[in-house]
């Protein structure tokens, strides 16, 4: 079973890297980009076969390591 | 003063930190403790977490180090009232362990900054800074890519209200919230700071402003 975790800076936390990407897009001529937020995708291969259990475990992984919940939010997809 | 310096793969200020501690501690041998240890040496007064790029800054700066075997022993030591100093990557590790609030984000200018900066000593009500004068301006080097301190509004208000901001930048180099360069734990015995006192602790460094911190700490330990 695979899991995919998206980690993003929380709304309201200024994302300096996203801002830099936004400026670079503007200088390439891409107009109308009002905001860019940059995050991470983490893919996990799990031995678990029960989707609900896998989701609970990965959520715990996010809380303990994969995301820093002071500044980041996360979402978990199980496939 | 009995001190230990924690060493992670990628630490690069560990020996500088040990030298700085030894100088003020009368050359008692400061011990270097490898991250795979599960306990600290007995009878320690101070644990220092040095600068560097522990675990290559993988995932987030300090994140992996904060989950290494020795981290639990450091948290226990701090919770029992031990003194912990985290400098640069050490500050990042301390926020990741939860011993200090907030997080260190990518510098607002996105560049690695390596230069001497002016700092204002915001509080002298701690063993780390009571050798300075409150409001005094000192100079210490910074060398970091992720020193942009961030926390939520409630925590910031609490840090201010409880006089837990140790140092602020006189000319904010990295976008840090409220110009914060260093913060203290609630019991004032854990200090995390981005600037490097150990790199400005003897005349040969061209600046010994950082030596005051180590000396004050050593004197406090001698009295304890």
TrEMBL record, chain A:
The keyword tRNA-binding does not apply. This is Phosphoribosylformylglycinamidine synthase subunit PurS. Pfam families: PurS (PF02700). Its EC number is 6.3.5.3. InterPro entries: PurS, PurS-like_sf. Pathway: Purine metabolism; IMP biosynthesis via de novo pathway; 5-amino-1-(5-phospho-D-ribosyl)imidazole from N(2)-formyl-N(1)-(5-phospho-D-ribosyl)glycinamide: step 1/2. One of its GO terms (cellular component) is cytoplasm. Keywords: ATP-binding, Cytoplasm, Ligase, Nucleotide-binding, Purine biosynthesis. One of its GO terms (molecular function) is phosphoribosylformylglycinamidine synthase activity. The keyword ATP-binding applies. Part of the FGAM synthase complex composed of 1 PurL, 1 PurQ and 2 PurS subunits. It is found in: Cytoplasm. It comes from Actibacterium lipolyticum. One of its GO terms (biological process) is 'de novo' IMP biosynthetic process. Part of the phosphoribosylformylglycinamidine synthase complex involved in the purines biosynthetic pathway. Catalyzes the ATP-dependent conversion of formylglycinamide ribonucleotide (FGAR) and glutamine to yield formylglycinamidine ribonucleotide (FGAM) and glutamate. The FGAM synthase complex is composed of three subunits. PurQ produces an ammonia molecule by converting glutamine to glutamate. PurL transfers the ammonia molecule to FGAR to form FGAM in an ATP-dependent manner. The gene is purS. SUPFAM superfamilies: PurS-like. It catalyses: N(2)-formyl-N(1)-(5-phospho-beta-D-ribosyl)glycinamide + L-glutamine + ATP + H2O = 2-formamido-N(1)-(5-O-phospho-beta-D-ribosyl)acetamidine + L-glutamate + ADP + phosphate + H(+). Belongs to the PurS family.
Automatic annotation (TrEMBL), chain B:
GO terms for molecular function: ATP binding; glutaminase activity; phosphoribosylformylglycinamidine synthase activity. Transmembrane segments: none annotated. Pathway: Purine metabolism; IMP biosynthesis via de novo pathway; 5-amino-1-(5-phospho-D-ribosyl)imidazole from N(2)-formyl-N(1)-(5-phospho-D-ribosyl)glycinamide: step 1/2. The active site is at residues 88, 196, 198. Its main location: cytoplasm. It is found in: Cytoplasm. CDD domains: GATase1_FGAR_AT. Keywords: ATP-binding, Cytoplasm, Glutamine amidotransferase, Hydrolase, Ligase, Nucleotide-binding, Purine biosynthesis. It catalyses: N(2)-formyl-N(1)-(5-phospho-beta-D-ribosyl)glycinamide + L-glutamine + ATP + H2O = 2-formamido-N(1)-(5-O-phospho-beta-D-ribosyl)acetamidine + L-glutamate + ADP + phosphate + H(+); L-glutamine + H2O = L-glutamate + NH4(+). Part of the phosphoribosylformylglycinamidine synthase complex involved in the purines biosynthetic pathway. Catalyzes the ATP-dependent conversion of formylglycinamide ribonucleotide (FGAR) and glutamine to yield formylglycinamidine ribonucleotide (FGAM) and glutamate. The FGAM synthase complex is composed of three subunits. PurQ produces an ammonia molecule by converting glutamine to glutamate. PurL transfers the ammonia molecule to FGAR to form FGAM in an ATP-dependent manner. This is Phosphoribosylformylglycinamidine synthase subunit PurQ. It comes from Actibacterium lipolyticum.
